From TrEMBL:
The keyword Transferase applies. The active site is at residue 352. GO terms for biological process: glutathione biosynthetic process; glutathione catabolic process. This enzyme consists of two polypeptide chains, which are synthesized in precursor form from a single polypeptide. The lineage of its organism: Bacteria, Pseudomonadati, Pseudomonadota, Alphaproteobacteria, Hyphomicrobiales. It comes from Phreatobacter oligotrophus. The keyword Transferase applies. This is Glutathione hydrolase proenzyme. Belongs to the gamma-glutamyltransferase family.
Length: 529
């Protein structure tokens, strides 16, 4: 594919090119760990787990073994394999119990937001199914950084102070994730000795080293001390699920997403709506493109929040939600000239890591791992150094809603890996971080690729916008004239100081070469050989 030449005078970087294999992550140490595994003969699956293990140490506010993960894995000539590594609510929890405690929602920093962490079981399953190495091999870089220390990178240092006060309220979090009571600064060395020992236990015993024994007991002790409902049996009985991806179509390009309980089909709804408009005829940074994109997202997220949940509880089908005919109805609700009022907004944004890996055999892995909000629940196991996710905050306590909290139920999930296909073959592994933004981000990146022919780095770096409540949030890289025009269209525009999300992408070219990009909004890079 021929891509438009970038402006070499601008503050940007080129996409990475390679012949054999490539890794793209949000942290340079994670990318390096993945490349080392690939060069040692590991598969893309081995490299992905090695990278995510490192990020669990060096980006602790974004991800960790106390969280969940989802992945899509493709091999030439075979169907895409998907895995849902999300955990469930405690078997003993009910909405009535939370309402009786005076709760009208599940607070993000509450012990009731902690669900069973699904990541470690998923890692082991992925390696067993698609890898050549075991956890003992691929976790060695993460163990080394946890025990010996790692340099805090600029974006991590930028994010950390926001949650320092909240971390200080929990003894375990303060002990393991603050430095003398404060957030670390860029270039400082951080260590996580307790987490390193926990990773060593997992490396030696496999997933059982997390879901049973000393580590599991520390998790349950920690949550019970705060009034939680999780039991050892909830951990020991956890299993993820193999999934068949949902494949949509945008102008002849296939887009693969995992089915609910993840929000992936929201991206397909957005793309179906955008397909009703001449996006290609709009400038990539025009007010028309920004306006249509926001309005399509507002409609799609309204549907997400009403219907997407644990599939056993959903009252409408995926097929109904991603119907092209339904998209035509939705598109007619959009006024091309002005903002449409009274559409239900999504919940607040959250945090995640994503990586894309392709190996020499062209196995492609699209992998995402998260503890939900910054530092998850901000509750940390004191002995084992595990930050526990707050994914249960996605639940509500309304018995009539499909996403109501309940025994052993999975919450609606924001983290979503993705792939693009041409003529049935995977040509691109990609993902976008940023909590609720991810579905909108997927649609944005797909349009940048399909409609504008951007290369991976350009598609990821392109200015972003999202909506929060009644406000439209835009990055300052949008042209001033565009921002003023969308204000005139009725959007209440905020120019954000904090970048919107992050992302990685690797394309498999017809030539056999690999082309990758890693978001400049993060510290990472795409690297190949």
């Amino acid at each position: 594919m021929t891509y438009p030449m970038r402006d070499f005078h601008g503050p940007a970087r080129s996409s990475a090119y390679a012949t054999e294999a490539m890794a793209a992550t949000s942290h340079p140490l994670a990318t390096a760990a993945a490349i080392d595994i690939l060069k040692a003969g590991g598969t893309a699956a081995d490299a992905a787990i090695a990278a995510v293990g490192v990020m669990a140490v060096v980006e602790p506010h974004m991800t960790g073994i106390g969280g969940d993960c989802f992945t899509l894995i493709s091999k030439p000539g075979k169907s895409i394999w998907g895995y849902n590594g999300s955990g469930r609510a405690a078997k003993a929890v009910t909405a009535e119990k939370l309402r009786s405690a005076g709760l009208t929602s599940v607070p993000t920093d509450s012990v009731h937001a902690i669900t069973v962490p699904g990541a470690v079981e998923a890692w082991e399953t992925i390696l067993r199914t698609h890898g050549r190495f075991d956890l003992g091999r691929v976790l060695q870089p993460a163990i080394r950084y946890a025990k010996e220390g790692w340099p805090v990178t600029p974006r991590v240092a930028f994010d950390w102070p926001t949650d320092a006060a909240a971390l200080a309220k929990d003894a375990g979090a303060a002990r393991h994730y603050l430095k003398d009571g404060r957030a670390p600064t860029a270039g400082e060395r951080m260590t996580s000795a307790a987490l390193g020992a926990t990773l060593e236990e997992i490396a030696a015993k496999g997933a059982k080293g997390f879901y049973e024994g000393r580590v599991a007991e520390d998790i349950i002790r920690t949550t019970k001390a705060k009034g939680g409902f999780l039991e050892l049996e909830d951990l020991a009985s956890h299993r993820g699920t193999v999934e068949t991806p949902v494949i949509g179509d945008y102008k002849g390009v296939g887009v693969a997403e995992l089915p609910p309980n993840g929000q992936g089909i929201t991206a397909l709804i957005i793309l179906n709506i955008l397909e009703q408009f001449d996006v290609k005829g709009m400038s990539p940074t025009s007010p028309e493109r920004l306006h249509i994109g926001i309005e399509a997202a507002r409609l799609a997220y309204s549907l997400r929040d009403s219907h997407i949940a644990d599939p056993a509880a959903m009252k409408v089908t995926v097929e109904q939600l991603i119907s092209k005919d339904f998209a035509k109805v939705l598109a007619k609700m959009i006024d091309p000239a002005k903002r449409t009022p009274r559409l239900v907004p999504p919940p607040p944004g959250t945090n995640t890591i994503y990586c894309s890996i392709v190996d020499r055999d062209r196995m492609a892995v699209s992998f995402i791992n998260s503890i939900f909000h910054h530092f998850g629940s901000k509750i940390c196991t004191p002995e084992t150094g595990i930050l526990l996710q707050n994914r249960g905050a996605s639940f509500n306590v309304n018995d009539d809603h499909p996403n109501c909290i309940g025994p052993g139920k999975r919450p609606m999930h924001t983290i979503i890996p993705a792939m693009m296909l041409e003529k049935g073959e995977v040509t691109c592994s990609f993902g976008v971080m940023g909590g609720s933004y991810q579905s909108s981000g997927h649609a944005h990146v797909v349009c940048n690729t399909v409609d504008y022919g951007m290369d991976p780095q350009q598609a990821i770096d392109s200015p972003r916008a999202f909506f929060e409540g009644e406000k439209t949030t835009v990055e300052p890289t949008w042209p001033a004239a565009t921002i003023e025009k969308v204000r005139a269209m009725g959007h209440d525009v905020d120019i954000t100081v904090k970048p919107i999300g992050g992302g990685q992408m690797i394309r498999i070219e017809k030539s056999g070469f690999l082309v990758g990009g890693s978001d400049a909004r993060k510290d990472g890079l795409a690297l190949g050989y």
